[in-house]
Amino acid sequence: xxxxxxxxxxxxxxxxxxxxxxxxxxxxxxxxxxxxxxxxxxxxxxxxxxxxxxxxxxxxxxxxxxxxxxxxxxxxxxxxxxxxxxxxxxxxxxxxxxxxxxxxxxxxxxxxxxxxxxxxxxx
Amino acid sequence: xxxxxxxxxxxxxxxxxxxxxxxxxxxxxxxxxxxxxxxxxxxxxxxxxxxxxxxxxxxxxxxxxxxxxxxxxxxxxxxxxxxxxxxxxxxxxxxxxxxxxxxxxxxxxxxxxxxxxxxxxxx
Lengths: 123, 123
Hints:
Shape of chain A: globular
CATH topology of chain A: Nuclear Transport Factor 2, Chain: A
Largest interface: A-B, 27 and 27 residues
Oligomer: homodimer
Order of helices and strands of chain A: HHEEHEEEEH
Strand content of chain A: over 45%
Number of strands of chain A: 6
Number of helices of chain A: 4
Strand order of the largest sheet of chain A: 2-1-6-5-4-3
CATH class of chain A: Alpha Beta
Mean pLDDT of chain A: 95
Structural class of chain A: alpha+beta
Largest sheet of chain A: 6 strands, mixed
Distance between the termini of chain A: 39 Å
């Protein structure tokens, strides 16, 4: 497994442990996180803040990796089912995400999903 | 380039030529196309029908490949900007898609995007 893929697997483990410190440690001050239907967020501190409210609501997290593939250009592409336990109920979100890794850190992360599919489960 | 990746590149070329016959030729009677926010469609004939109305509206198609990667399990993952010229205006949809290829044909195709992001441009 290449270093880039290892970094992405490590990020997924940190989510599954619902460990915000460990998650934040995968980013730098110039990292960009774009949850595609929303505005992009830049920098580890802002990424932490963007994730904080949502992870705080979750009593458990279980991201199921369907496929992972690393391109010849080094980008790591994932297909996942992101599961979150909120108020005693599991939400399931089918999602794909691209990760661009450099120097052992995630420099860019873009996740693609249908926002309404997610919000309708939250309601 | 592996055969699976070649098949996916060939499908993208067929879309960019807006050639419905060539597109349909990439699927079999058991292929499943799931445009994630919508219902899944099974079989080349049904996939053709699902695509037909939309491609017919498009006077030009330009899918820009951002990243492509093939996993060790043979799945081909793509990040794209799918552009469609409709009524003299270009719509742009950021999307990711997974392709499972077998015997030179696409057996499964799942595309992930925000449906509202697309529909708001169509309006």
